[in-house]
Amino acid sequence: MSALNAPPRSKSERASKTALKLLVKALKKSPSEVSIDGYSENMDGSGYSQYSQSSLDESEENDIDQTCDNTHNVPEMNTVSDMIVGYKRFRAGVYTRQHSIYRDLGYGSQTPKVLVISCVDSRADPSTIFDAGPGQLFVVRNIANLVHPYDPYTGGANATSSGLEYAVKALKVEHVVVMGHGGCGGINASLQSAEPDNKIGEFEFVGPWVSVLNKARDKVRASNSFNPQYALELEGINMSIQNLLTFPFVKEAVDAGTLQLHGAWFAIHHGELHWRNNTTCQFEVVPAFTKEAMQAKASQARRLVRDSIQKSPSALF
Ligand SMILES: [Zn+2]
Question: How far is the CA of 142 from the centre of ligand 1 (A)?
Answer without folding.
Answer: 8
